[in-house]
Amino acid sequence: MNRQAQAVIMFLVGAAVLHAGFTDLYLRYVKAGLRPLLLAAGVVLILAALATVWYDRRASKDGHRHTEGAGEGEGQEAGSGDGHAHREPRVSWLLVLPLFALILVAPPALGSYSALHTGTALQAPLAYPRLPAADPLPLSVVDYAGRAAYGHGRTLGNRRVEVTGFVALGHDGTPYLVRMALNCCAADAQPVKIGLTGHIPPVLEPDAWLRVTGTYTGKRAKDPVNDGVIPFLDVTEARPVPTPRDPYDESWNN
Q1: Which residue among 11, 22, 92, 239 has the highest number of C-beta atoms inside a 10 angstrom radius?
Q2: pTM of the predicted model as reported, rounded to 2 decimal places
C-alpha cells in the first residue's frame, strides 16, 4: 500500500482505539487500568497518520517543483522510468474490515464456552483479609472460591455471602457460577468456578448473569479439564442481574 493508504489505515486504527477507550468497549479486551495507555496509543496513531499525509504531500509538491524547473529532456528522462505504473493490490483494503467491525459491533465477553473448555485458575490466596460486617456479605467469585477451597471456609463460618457471576452448565449438568479472571487482557483470561447446590433455579440459561446468596458448604469437585479444585456454594436465593459494566474479575491483581 502507498503512504496515503497506510495513513488511512493508521488513522482508522487510532480512531477505533479511541472509540474503545472512551466507551466501556475496551473492558471487553483489556483490564480497566490500561485505559490511559489505550487513549495515548490512539492519539499517537492519529498524529502519526496526519504527519504521514503531511510529509507525503510536501514531498509530492517538492518533486513537482523540481520537475518543472528541470529541462525538457531531463524531465522526460526522469519521468519515463520503465513505462509501467505499479498499482497496489486492492485486496489490501480488506484490512479495514476488522476496524469497522470493532467500531460497529461490540463483541461479547468470554463466557460459558471458554469457561467449560478451560480449567479453573483458582490459586491459594496469600492471605485472607478480614471481612466486613454485612449481611449478606458481597464477595467476588475469586474471593469466595479461595476462602472455600483453601481456607476450608474458616473465615466464612455460617455467614450469608452474595456472589455474582455468569452461569455455565457442565457436561454432566452441574451448574457453575463463573467469573473470568484477568491478568492483563482477554487473551489471558481464565475462569474461576463455583459449583452451585441447594435452592437452584429450575431453569438456568448458560451465560446468564446471576446474583447468588448462600452459605459455605464443604462440598467440592475436581475440574474435569485440569483437576483443579472447584468449591461449592449452598444457594438460598438466586436472581438474574444485568451484565456488569466490567465482566471480568481483576481482584486477584489487587
Answers
A1: 11
A2: 0.72
